[in-house]
Write a structure and sequence with these properties.
single chain, 312 residues, 12 strands, 43% helix
């Protein structure tokens, strides 16, 4: 096996690797790095020689990472972020972190309700810092952090790993939405609640917290359809008589932006703690700590409740 000396390797190649892995396109990676596409292709050729692997193969949808590239990605990203972290120590009093991208993992109900507020708050303090929001749900949040797919995760799930730290950002309840022209009034009786068909929001499975609560009352509802993302709710319930039960922060945001009717939920549903988590080894990363605190502040002050994205 050939021995590679780091003194002979251009460390800028790792920035090219990161851009190719994220963008899955040599042309888009070139735009991101302000290079020409031939320069990116040449850098990829040099990376292939270093690792003795194609790293990225062309498919009908762009460049697809090989198994070797998948294994390298968290290692290279971590090394680059540590370099950026070192540079940020001298820049912490300046409002510029150009070149740094922070990956925030959260479900789309939080993106809908808080994404813009988080972005504005971060931009006001660090205009050179870029945020990349990645969708995930509570059952995969810890795993995404462990694999270094995200830097910060917002979730109602547990973070029990010894390598992760978290803070509690709040808790809250649920609300219901219907089309504003539906025949129901501004409040729902329990009988009306089970009489109308329901839309279920679930990342997996066909039974939600509502069904568990109704079962305790010896009642059940009719689920007409289920979806995996909160953002599609308006397109399903407009001009229908369907009800959807969802976290209050998302319900309030969708009601105001999509002209839907917001109503209290007529059954009692359990509250969830909302946690913001990160890798313990990142605790000295000043930028990550600052953004984490900004997200916590937005969640705490953005609404009365900050409930989970559990199945409803």
């Amino acid at each position: 096996m050939n021995t590679i000396n780091i003194d002979t390797v251009d460390l800028n190649l790792f920035k090219v690797f990161e851009a190719l892995y994220d963008e899955r396109s040599a042309s888009r990676a070139a735009i991101r790095l302000d290079l020409t596409q031939p320069a990116v292709s040449a850098a990829l050729g040099r990376l292939r020689k270093v690792y003795g692997d194609p790293l990225f193969v062309r498919t009908g949808r762009g460049l697809h990472p090989t198994r070797c590239a998948e294994e390298l990605s968290p290692v290279i990203r971590d090394a680059l972020n540590r370099c950026r972290q070192g540079l940020s120590m001298s820049l912490l009093n300046r409002a510029s972190f150009a070149g740094r991208i922070l990956f925030i993992g959260l479900s789309d109900d939080y993106e809908i309700a808080f994404g813009r507020a988080i972005l504005s708050a971060v931009e006001n303090k660090y205009p050179g810092l870029r945020l990349a929001f990645k969708q995930l749900h509570s059952s995969i949040a810890a795993d995404a952090l462990m694999k270094k797919e995200v830097d910060i995760a917002v979730s109602a799930g547990e973070f029990s790993s010894a390598t992760l730290d978290y803070i509690r950002a709040g808790s809250g309840g649920y609300a219901c939405l219907m089309d504003d022209k539906a025949e129901a009034g501004n409040t729902l009786s329990l009988n009306d609640f089970v009489r109308y068909p329901h839309l279920l929001v679930s990342s997996g499975g066909i039974v939600g917290a509502v069904d568990e609560a109704l079962r305790a009352l010896k009642m059940h509802r009719i689920i007409k359809a289920s979806v995996t993302h909160f953002s599609v709710i308006p397109f399903f319930i407009r001009e229908s008589n369907m009800i959807v039960t969802l976290p209050r922060h998302a319900a309030e945001a969708l009601a105001s932006s999509a002209g839907l009717r917001l109503m209290p939920c007529p059954i009692s549903l359990p509250e969830y703690d909302i946690r913001i988590a990160w890798k313990r080894e990142s605790r000295r990363d000043a930028v990550l700590t600052e953004v984490r605190d900004i997200i916590c502040d937005v969640l705490q002050h953005g609404c009365r409740d900050t409930p989970s994205a559990a199945r409803t």
